[in-house]
Write a structure and sequence with these properties.
InterPro entries: Calcineurin-like_PHP (IPR004843), Metallo-depent_PP-like (IPR029052), Ser/Thr-sp_prot-phosphatase (IPR006186). GO terms for molecular function: hydrolase activity. Residues 10-68 form the Calcineurin-like phosphoesterase domain. The chain is α+β, with helices and mostly antiparallel strands. Helices cover 31% and strands 10% of the residues. The chain folds into three domains: 10-76, no CATH class; 80-152, no CATH class; 162-229, no CATH class. The protein has helices spanning 20-34, 36-40, 57-70, 81-86, 110-113, 126-132, 155-160, 191-200, 209-212, and strands at residues 10-13, 43-46, 139-140, 145-146, 163-168, 173-178. It has a two-stranded parallel sheet. A two-stranded antiparallel sheet has the order 3-4. The protein starts with 9 loop residues before the first strand and ends in a 19-residue tail after the last helix.
């Protein structure tokens, strides 16, 4: 009788923030703790924030790009919306409108946050302008540290360049759908509606709280707190 197929391991990794050495150390530690055989076939989900703050975003991106060829049975996943917006890779709004039309809602912050006004800014998504700008304030009171360029500390960035899973509950192995998002879903809104909004990828919206906000990040719905994933 054939042995049952072993459940595939899932690893969620977030907040790399331009630190290639820390990413490589984490990668090595994961392989050591999981075991090479299981690690080579694991589902790796990158949750974003590849850039900002750290010294070398380019090396982080190069490392991520190299993974499919090194681990052909372990395709990584992930995205970096604001970085893509700055590079002009975000698709235009589906209704044909310009990104600039969405600036109006937050234009009172433009001077204080120092939105980017360089080449190509005229039709850049708001988040691309905010991340690549230069904030006038020198000190970030909330973090207790100096700003490193833009309101999202993006200077180092631009200077350097629902799967099916099995969960062990102790008594049994449960098959379920994994929702992996960076930042977080909130408990005071219907989860299906939140996912529907995120999947729509409507670039007319200048700011998506669940992707860029921090106020509700700990207020997760119970369906998302079934188990804790180490980043």
């Amino acid at each position: 009788m054939a042995e049952p197929t072993k459940p595939r391991l899932v690893c969620c990794i977030g907040d790399i923030h331009g630190f290639p050495t820390k990413l490589q150390n984490l990668w090595s530690n994961l392989e050591s703790s999981i075991g090479t055989a299981d690690f080579n076939t694991a589902l790796i989900i990158f949750l974003g924030d590849y850039c900002d703050r750290g010294p070398n975003t380019r090396e982080v991106i190069d490392f991520l790009i190299s993974l499919p060829s090194k681990y052909p049975h372990q395709p990584p996943d992930g995205s970096e919306f604001a970085f893509a917006a700055f590079l002009g890779l975000v698709p235009q709004p589906p209704d044909g409108s310009e990104f600039a039309e969405a600036w109006k809602e937050y234009e009172e912050n433009e001077e204080r946050e120092g939105w980017y006004k360089g080449e190509g800014y005229e039709n850049m998504h708001l988040q691309g302008r905010r991340w690549s700008g230069k904030i006038k304030a020198k000190f970030n009171v909330a973090k207790g540290m100096d700003y490193k360029g833009s309101i999202y500390d993006a200077a180092p960035t631009f200077e350097s360049y629902g799967d099916d899973v099995c969960i062990e509950t102790g008594d049994e192995i449960k098959h379920c759908k994994l929702i992996a998002v960076h930042a977080g879903l909130v408990s005071n809104q219907d989860v299906k509606e939140q996912l529907k909004f995120l999947k729509a990828k409507d670039t007319r919206v200048p700011k998506v709280d669940s992707l860029s906000g921090r106020k509700n990040v700990w207020d997760m719905p119970k369906v998302s707190t079934f188990f804790i994933m180490m980043q």
